[in-house]
From TrEMBL:
Residues 43-293 form the Mannitol dehydrogenase N-terminal domain. It comes from Myxococcus llanfairpwllgwyngyllgogerychwyrndrobwllllantysiliogogogochensis. One of its GO terms (biological process) is mannitol metabolic process. The keyword NAD applies. This is Mannitol dehydrogenase family protein.
Amino acid sequence: DRRGSATVRPGGRLVIRLSNSTLVSLPAGVEGPAYDRTRVTPGIAHLGVGQFHRAHQALYLDRCLALPGQERWGIVGIGVLDGARERHKADALHTQQGLYSLTEFPARGRPTVRVVGSLVGYLHAPEDPERVLELLAAPDLRLVTLTLTEGGYNLDEAGQFLLETPAVARDLDSQVPTTAFGLVTEALRRRRERGLGPFTVLSCDNLRQNGEVARDAFLSFARARVPSLANWMEEHVTFPSAMVDRITPGVTEHEAARLNEASGLDDALPVYSESFIQWVIEDRFCAGRPPLERVGVQFTDDVGPYEQVKLRLLNASHSLLAFPGLLMGYRFVAQAMEDPALVSLLQAFLREDAEPLLHPPRGFSVRDYGDTVLERFSNPAINDQLLRIASDSASKLPLFVQPTAREALRQGRDTRRIAFLLAAFCEYLRGVDERGHVFLPLEPHLTGAEVRRAHATDLKAPLGLELFQGWGLAEHPGFVKDCVHFRRELRFKGVSATLAELARS
Ligand code: CS2
């Protein structure tokens, strides 16, 4: 029973497919774009159109496009990775003309659903790299934004760009780039050759000084490929840093069905998130920018203090919840937050360990921020997977936890909760919880042999992993001893008993 733009579900309910022509007949309660999409042209290209991008940046741009005279700031999404899932996404975005639904769940009260219209095109680079290059080299394209993930910048522990990574090494030689570095560099080369100006490269990844990180990565690639271009980029391209924040869980098939059931849409790519949203950006755009300050984005000269607060409080707490939570058999964040021992652990970590070492923005209450973080984690509508949080901890822990750990060790502070965190990480790598249930740690930046170190009889073996370089652990044998102690306790007494001990002493 299909009618092109709508399907009739058993029970007689009409479900709307997404396309420009169905925007006028959205189900009751679903808001659509407040502007004429057919007039929107691409000014932004975004690499890595994941759920986070669709719940965060694309929403801000959707608000921006609703302001008068801003139709030049549409986004064209670019998929860089290959694989069946990526192709499915590309197909779905084409069929739906870039439209998708976003459901926002406040901590309390009713969710809201909107159809976001700012994604006005989508190109899948592996299928047509040349079109991607010409889009990036188009005169009207002024901003390239990125979500490559924490580990996606191809840097080693010391921040050196890895020229020998296979895909990068290939891109350095070939005429047809496949990586974000290759695509952006080749597009800039064409722009320079054609006498066009540069574009801004804006990282939207959860990294400290993400603009500097992006700059290092792209300039290193360019230097190895076309040295004169690297000089031009250094002079003309800007790489502002930004802090991004919005909890956006992965959408399983089951979630997608639940979201569509509630919205009355037949959306192949629904996303959902909490209602909290934040974006703080350094105002250094070499080719202009949309008036994002009018839709809730904060601009600042120095994003450092905002990033510091976010990474060391929110993200570190997430990790601190995920490892013991998984070991206890929990699978979701809100579920783990119902465990009072875990909440007390997070509270103590925030108050005693992380907050005292911060240099927050002026007038900023870290105490309120920490409270809000715990409230956000407790949002029951957000089925955020602990495995998503724990995934790629090899890239995340050095960002989220290392600064606090190093500083606390240097100052001789109480580091037992941090030792517990590392112990729980090592145990998590073994992939089996206290009830004997198996789970799969996703560690794309660790080799199989490295993950297997977590199984060694020498309980401190994983602390020798490259990710712990720069933590200064070797100079602090007492700390390493605590880690080993907590691993043993976790293994033989369990998480609850270990937490009880930690709370007592
Ligand atoms: C999480 C983040 O992946 C993680 O470790 O802490 O994805 C978190 O949900 C976002 O940073 C929130 O903005």
